[in-house]
Amino acid sequence: MKAIKIVDVKKVEVRAVPDLAPNGRDVLIQVKASGICGSDLMFFRNGGFIGDQGTSTKTPGHEFCGVVVDPGASRTLKKGDRVVIMELNPCGECDLCKAGRINLCMQTLLVSYGCNENGFDGGMAEYCLVRPDMVVKIPDSLSDIQGALVEPAAIAMHAVLRSEVDAKSKVLVTGAGPIGLLCAAVARAMGAAQIVMTEISADRIKFARECNYADAVLNGADADLKDKLLEISGGSFSHVLECTGVGAVAAVAMDLLGWAGHFQMVAIHGSFELNMETTSMKEIDVRGGFYFEPEGFQKVIDLMAAGRLNLDKLVTRVAKLEEAQSCFESLDAGSDAKIVFVP
């Protein structure tokens, strides 16, 4: 079968690898659509998974959907079921797993699907084997392309749920990359009263406005940005979803929060300056976020099936596995927003 491999810095190849066979345990899935995540792009730039530059042998890809070929040990799946996967790999024994927070299990961080060399092959291939409890059925009303968007949308859903966005929320989303756009779309689906985005890339600003997931998209490099945001929000935002990973952006966004505001880190940050006095006095809730939880994952599927979360505009290119090199190069150059492979 065919599978994408990262073979060097900014170089991928489609290679013939041994066919997968049922093993009586894992679910054998024929992949129908697989998206390129920001982390996959990072692996491409690094020449391999983090810590394994130039030595990676595993297949990347964790945003994918497909059809069950063999259900393995699953008692709830059958051949022909359409499914998506959660790339998590919780141990089930640690305190975090027992508390239901399987996204924080150390085994998930170190050994997962399509994300690390010590883990399992991902979905940028024709077939994939996945443990049964991480395989989730989707309704036939969702297309294969939509199915490939469930996992990244679940990342956004996790952020929105953790920050407690509701119908009264005035939300500022910093960064209009794929995850920022997904955060805006999910916040809209969850009923947020106002959604505003900031972005410095002219192409991304244009695309975000075309997607129409936010009420306004402002240029983050505008010298009058802060004043404009204060005017639009009526003085302050109740929620910030920080999707840039840039400390200076995070610091400005924090200043725009009102009393009892919620600051949700979606991007992975190194560090940024935090005014502890203001944060304490305003009782601002600062939260991290990592992966997603199963409840949020299912909520995405339900919202998409109900027509309340339409992400079709986000996909700018659908390609074959053989086009992998040009696809990664296009994302690296910022020429595409979201690319999905259809093996």
Characterization of the model:
- With 343 residues, the protein is of the alpha/beta class.
- It has two domains: 2-149 and 315-341, Medium-chain alcohol dehydrogenases, catalytic domain (Quinone Oxidoreductase, Chain A, domain 1, Alpha-Beta Complex), CATH 3.90.180; 157-287, NAD(P)-binding Rossmann-like Domain (Rossmann fold, 3-Layer(aba) Sandwich), CATH 3.40.50.720.
- Helix content is 30%, strand content 23%.
- It contains twelve helices and 15 strands.
- The protein has helices spanning 38-46, 95-98, 106-110, 144-148, 150-162, 178-189, 202-211, 225-233, 247-255, 276-281, 294-305, 324-332, and strands at 2-8, 11-16, 27-35, 63-70, 82-85, 127-130, 135-137, 170-174, 194-199, 216-219, 237-242, 257-265, 285-287, 317-319, 339-341.
- The strands form three sheets. Strands 3, 4, 5, 6, 7, 14 and 15 form a seven-stranded mixed beta sheet that branches.
- The longest helix is centred in the middle third of the chain and has 13 residues, at 150-162.
- The mean pLDDT is 94.
